[in-house]
Specification:
Helices cover about 100% and strands about 0% of the residues. By secondary structure, it is mainly alpha-helical.
Amino acid sequence: MSNTIERSSLKFEQWCMTILGLLTVSGVSWIALTVNENQVQYTQIKERLNGQTAILIDLQNKAGANAQWRSRVDTDIAVMERRLQELERERKE
C-alpha cells in the first residue's frame, strides 16, 4: 500500500514538473517572440525617423536658400526703385 502511494506521489510530482517545465518553456518562448517583434518595430520606426529627418533637413536647406533668394530679389527691387526715382527726378528737372 505504501509503495503504491509512493509511486502515485512520484507520478504526480513528475506530472507537475512536466507541466511546470512546459509553462516555463512557453513563457520564455513568448517573451523571446515579443522581444523580437518589438526589435523589428523599433528598427522600422527608427528607419522612418531617419527618412523624415533627411526630408526635414532638405526642407530647411531649401527654406534657407529661398530666404536668401528672396532677400536678393528684394534688394534688387529696392535698387531699381531708387534708380527709377532718380530718373524721374532728373526727368522733371
